[in-house]
Specification:
By secondary structure, this protein is mainly beta. It has one domain: Thrombin, subunit H (Beta Barrel). The chain has three helices and eleven strands. A hairpin with a 2-residue loop joins strand 10 and strand 11. The N terminus is likely disordered.
Length: 184
């Protein structure tokens, strides 16, 4: 009951914060439907490179810049606004659109806290994503990739979700995302 009440409070409170919005992204072709989350960073739009580069997304999700090293694809380059990473011990809120195969999904939120910085994550065999922050989480899953990570204290955007392993969620810190947006 406490977890449900906390989630309800978060869903009601976070739309009040200015800044990043998370929306659902869907790519489909003859044989594959794939979903992820797309997040606004100021006036820019970003998601994860591992989704934007999928064959199912070919020709549907064009991007102006991409960093395989940090797993970020910039769908629209523009001024990102404030870029300040999460502080140690700061609470986190994750946002994403989990789904199975392109079905319309509802925005979900989960909470956790920062547990590590400078982490490396093997996204797939032979593809290592570097410089990630890691936080605890319990419900982040497929479809959250590309979604927002916010500070629980003030709602500011602090990262973009890359993936999850067990009860841990890896995300690219916002200062890294903003550098990729600005340098293209």
């Amino acid at each position: 009951m406490t977890r449900i009440l906390s989630a309800l409070i978060l869903m009601l409170a976070f739309p009040l914060f200015a800044g990043a919005q998370t929306s659902q992204g869907v790519c489909l072709n003859d044989t594959k439907i794939s979903t992820a989350s797309i997040t606004s960073v100021g006036e820019a739009l970003v998601t994860v490179a591992h989704w934007a580069e999928l064959p199912a997304c070919a020709g549907q999700q064009s991007y102006t810049a991409s960093s395989r090293e940090y797993d970020i694809a910039v769908l629209k380059a523009a001024e990102p606004g404030e870029c300040r990473n999460v502080e140690p011990g700061e609470g986190l809120v994750y946002e994403g659109f989990p789904g199975d195969g392109g079905q319309e999904a509802e925005l979900e939120q989960d909470t956790g806290e920062l547990v590590s910085t400078g982490f490396e994550f093997e996204l797939e065999p032979g593809r290592l994503v570097k410089g990630l922050d890691v936080g605890t989480s319990s419900t982040v899953r497929a479809g959250y990739s590309g979604g927002a990570v916010r500070s629980k204290a003030d709602g500011r955007l602090v990262g973009i979700i890359v993936g999850q392993n067990g009860n841990y969620t890896a995300f690219t810190p916002i200062e890294t995302v903003c550098a990729i947006i600005r340098t293209g």
